[in-house]
Amino acid sequence: MNPENDPRPWAVESSEYIHQLPWFTVRKEAIRMDSGGVIPNYFIFEYPTWVNVVAVTTEGQLVLIRQYRHGIAGVHYELCAGVVDPGEDPLVAAQRELLEETGFGGGTWSPLMTLSANPGTHNNLTHAFLALGVEVKQAQHLELTEEISVHIVSPERALGIVNQGEMVQALHLAPLLKYFLDRDSYNLADRL
Protein backbone atom coordinates (compact mmCIF):
# COMPACT_ATOMS: atom_id res chain seq x y z
CA MET A 1 0.00 0.00 0.00
CA ASN A 2 1.44 3.34 -1.09
CA PRO A 3 -0.89 6.20 -0.22
CA GLU A 4 -0.55 9.22 -2.47
CA ASN A 5 0.65 11.41 0.40
CA ASP A 6 3.55 9.10 1.44
CA PRO A 7 6.93 10.82 1.71
CA ARG A 8 9.11 10.35 -1.35
CA PRO A 9 12.53 8.65 -1.29
CA TRP A 10 15.45 10.97 -0.67
CA ALA A 11 17.89 11.97 -3.39
CA VAL A 12 21.50 10.99 -2.71
CA GLU A 13 23.76 13.82 -3.87
CA SER A 14 27.01 12.15 -2.83
CA SER A 15 28.09 8.95 -1.13
CA GLU A 16 31.47 7.85 0.24
CA TYR A 17 32.73 5.06 2.45
CA ILE A 18 34.14 6.26 5.76
CA HIS A 19 35.22 2.83 6.99
CA GLN A 20 35.09 -0.68 5.49
CA LEU A 21 35.62 -3.80 7.60
CA PRO A 22 33.46 -6.96 7.63
CA TRP A 23 31.68 -5.97 10.87
CA PHE A 24 31.97 -2.19 10.63
CA THR A 25 31.22 -0.62 7.28
CA VAL A 26 29.92 2.95 7.27
CA ARG A 27 29.13 5.26 4.41
CA LYS A 28 28.37 8.98 4.54
CA GLU A 29 25.82 10.46 2.20
CA ALA A 30 24.61 13.94 1.42
CA ILE A 31 20.83 13.85 1.15
CA ARG A 32 18.29 16.18 -0.43
CA MET A 33 14.68 15.68 0.55
CA ASP A 34 11.74 16.32 -1.77
CA SER A 35 10.64 19.12 0.58
CA GLY A 36 13.95 20.91 0.00
CA GLY A 37 15.57 19.87 3.27
CA VAL A 38 19.24 18.92 3.12
CA ILE A 39 21.16 16.51 5.35
CA PRO A 40 24.86 16.91 4.51
CA ASN A 41 26.11 14.07 6.76
CA TYR A 42 23.81 11.06 6.87
CA PHE A 43 25.50 7.83 8.00
CA ILE A 44 24.47 4.32 6.90
CA PHE A 45 25.79 1.16 8.58
CA GLU A 46 26.15 -1.74 6.14
CA TYR A 47 25.70 -5.29 7.42
CA PRO A 48 25.04 -8.63 5.75
CA THR A 49 21.59 -10.19 5.93
CA TRP A 50 20.80 -11.78 9.30
CA VAL A 51 18.58 -14.73 10.25
CA ASN A 52 17.06 -16.07 13.45
CA VAL A 53 14.92 -19.08 14.36
CA VAL A 54 12.00 -19.75 16.66
CA ALA A 55 12.67 -23.47 17.07
CA VAL A 56 10.04 -25.74 18.63
CA THR A 57 10.87 -29.35 19.50
CA THR A 58 8.66 -32.34 18.75
CA GLU A 59 7.55 -32.09 22.41
CA GLY A 60 6.49 -28.45 22.00
CA GLN A 61 9.45 -26.97 23.90
CA LEU A 62 11.38 -23.94 22.67
CA VAL A 63 15.10 -24.03 21.86
CA LEU A 64 16.78 -20.92 23.26
CA ILE A 65 20.42 -20.02 23.74
CA ARG A 66 22.41 -17.85 26.10
CA GLN A 67 25.62 -16.05 25.24
CA TYR A 68 27.65 -13.09 26.38
CA ARG A 69 27.18 -9.90 24.36
CA HIS A 70 30.07 -7.50 24.79
CA GLY A 71 28.19 -4.40 23.58
CA ILE A 72 25.97 -4.48 26.68
CA ALA A 73 28.39 -6.62 28.77
CA GLY A 74 25.72 -9.13 29.65
CA VAL A 75 24.38 -12.64 29.16
CA HIS A 76 20.73 -13.04 28.16
CA TYR A 77 18.43 -15.50 26.43
CA GLU A 78 18.27 -15.30 22.66
CA LEU A 79 17.00 -17.16 19.64
CA CYS A 80 19.52 -19.01 17.53
CA ALA A 81 20.73 -16.48 14.96
CA GLY A 82 23.47 -15.71 12.51
CA VAL A 83 24.67 -14.19 9.28
CA VAL A 84 23.72 -15.23 5.76
CA ASP A 85 26.88 -16.05 3.81
CA PRO A 86 27.28 -14.40 0.36
CA GLY A 87 25.05 -16.21 -2.14
CA GLU A 88 23.37 -18.30 0.57
CA ASP A 89 19.59 -18.59 0.82
CA PRO A 90 18.32 -17.19 4.16
CA LEU A 91 16.42 -20.41 4.94
CA VAL A 92 19.57 -22.49 4.38
CA ALA A 93 21.52 -20.08 6.60
CA ALA A 94 18.92 -20.36 9.37
CA GLN A 95 18.95 -24.16 9.21
CA ARG A 96 22.77 -24.16 9.29
CA GLU A 97 22.92 -21.78 12.25
CA LEU A 98 20.40 -23.79 14.28
CA LEU A 99 22.32 -27.02 13.68
CA GLU A 100 25.72 -25.49 14.43
CA GLU A 101 24.72 -23.49 17.51
CA THR A 102 22.32 -25.95 19.14
CA GLY A 103 22.67 -29.35 17.45
CA PHE A 104 18.94 -29.26 16.58
CA GLY A 105 17.67 -29.76 13.04
CA GLY A 106 14.97 -31.28 10.90
CA GLY A 107 11.35 -30.32 11.35
CA THR A 108 9.10 -28.19 9.20
CA TRP A 109 10.32 -24.69 8.39
CA SER A 110 8.41 -21.60 7.31
CA PRO A 111 9.10 -17.85 7.12
CA LEU A 112 7.85 -16.02 10.22
CA MET A 113 8.66 -12.35 9.58
CA THR A 114 11.24 -9.95 8.15
CA LEU A 115 12.61 -7.17 10.34
CA SER A 116 15.01 -4.24 10.32
CA ALA A 117 17.22 -3.49 13.33
CA ASN A 118 16.97 0.21 12.51
CA PRO A 119 15.67 1.24 9.08
CA GLY A 120 16.99 4.76 9.60
CA THR A 121 20.65 3.72 9.75
CA HIS A 122 21.03 0.02 8.87
CA ASN A 123 20.86 -1.27 5.30
CA ASN A 124 20.16 -4.95 6.09
CA LEU A 125 17.17 -7.10 6.98
CA THR A 126 16.70 -10.00 9.39
CA HIS A 127 14.67 -12.99 8.21
CA ALA A 128 13.01 -14.88 11.06
CA PHE A 129 11.92 -18.48 10.54
CA LEU A 130 9.69 -20.87 12.46
CA ALA A 131 10.98 -24.43 12.76
CA LEU A 132 8.40 -26.86 14.15
CA GLY A 133 9.29 -30.38 15.26
CA VAL A 134 13.08 -30.00 15.52
CA GLU A 135 15.15 -32.73 17.16
CA VAL A 136 18.74 -33.16 18.31
CA LYS A 137 20.76 -34.20 15.24
CA GLN A 138 24.34 -33.66 16.39
CA ALA A 139 26.51 -32.00 19.03
CA GLN A 140 27.03 -28.24 18.87
CA HIS A 141 29.64 -27.20 16.32
CA LEU A 142 30.71 -23.76 17.55
CA GLU A 143 33.31 -21.41 16.12
CA LEU A 144 36.22 -20.41 18.35
CA THR A 145 34.56 -17.02 18.88
CA GLU A 146 31.26 -18.54 20.07
CA GLU A 147 30.40 -19.52 23.64
CA ILE A 148 26.76 -20.60 23.62
CA SER A 149 24.69 -22.61 26.07
CA VAL A 150 21.49 -24.29 24.86
CA HIS A 151 18.29 -24.17 26.92
CA ILE A 152 15.15 -26.15 26.18
CA VAL A 153 12.24 -24.34 27.84
CA SER A 154 8.49 -24.70 28.04
CA PRO A 155 6.30 -22.10 26.35
CA GLU A 156 5.32 -20.84 29.81
CA ARG A 157 8.97 -20.43 30.81
CA ALA A 158 9.70 -18.63 27.50
CA LEU A 159 6.92 -16.14 28.23
CA GLY A 160 8.36 -15.68 31.71
CA ILE A 161 11.77 -14.98 30.20
CA VAL A 162 10.20 -12.26 28.05
CA ASN A 163 8.14 -10.78 30.89
CA GLN A 164 11.09 -10.73 33.30
CA GLY A 165 13.38 -8.94 30.82
CA GLU A 166 15.72 -11.91 30.43
CA MET A 167 15.69 -11.52 26.62
CA VAL A 168 16.73 -8.04 25.47
CA GLN A 169 17.54 -8.53 21.77
CA ALA A 170 14.63 -6.82 19.97
CA LEU A 171 15.19 -8.78 16.74
CA HIS A 172 14.66 -11.96 18.79
CA LEU A 173 11.77 -10.75 20.92
CA ALA A 174 9.60 -9.76 17.96
CA PRO A 175 9.58 -13.21 16.24
CA LEU A 176 9.11 -15.02 19.56
CA LEU A 177 6.16 -12.80 20.45
CA LYS A 178 4.70 -13.27 16.94
CA TYR A 179 4.95 -17.02 17.46
CA PHE A 180 2.99 -16.71 20.70
CA LEU A 181 0.39 -14.44 19.08
CA ASP A 182 -0.16 -16.96 16.26
CA ARG A 183 0.60 -20.17 18.19
CA ASP A 184 -2.94 -21.53 17.97
CA SER A 185 -2.68 -21.49 14.16
CA TYR A 186 0.40 -23.74 14.21
CA ASN A 187 -0.84 -27.29 14.56
CA LEU A 188 2.37 -29.21 15.21
CA ALA A 189 0.73 -32.59 14.55
CA ASP A 190 -0.34 -31.51 11.05
CA ARG A 191 3.19 -30.36 10.18
CA LEU A 192 5.12 -33.48 11.21
TrEMBL record:
One of its GO terms (molecular function) is hydrolase activity. Coiled coil: none annotated. Keywords: Hydrolase. Its cofactor is Mg(2+). One of its GO terms (cellular component) is cytosol. SUPFAM superfamilies: Nudix. One of its GO terms (biological process) is ribose phosphate metabolic process. Residues 46-175 form the Nudix hydrolase domain. It holds the Pfam family NUDIX. Transmembrane segments: none annotated. It catalyses: GDP-alpha-D-mannose + H2O = alpha-D-mannose 1-phosphate + GMP + 2 H(+). Belongs to the Nudix hydrolase family. NudK subfamily. This is GDP-mannose pyrophosphatase.
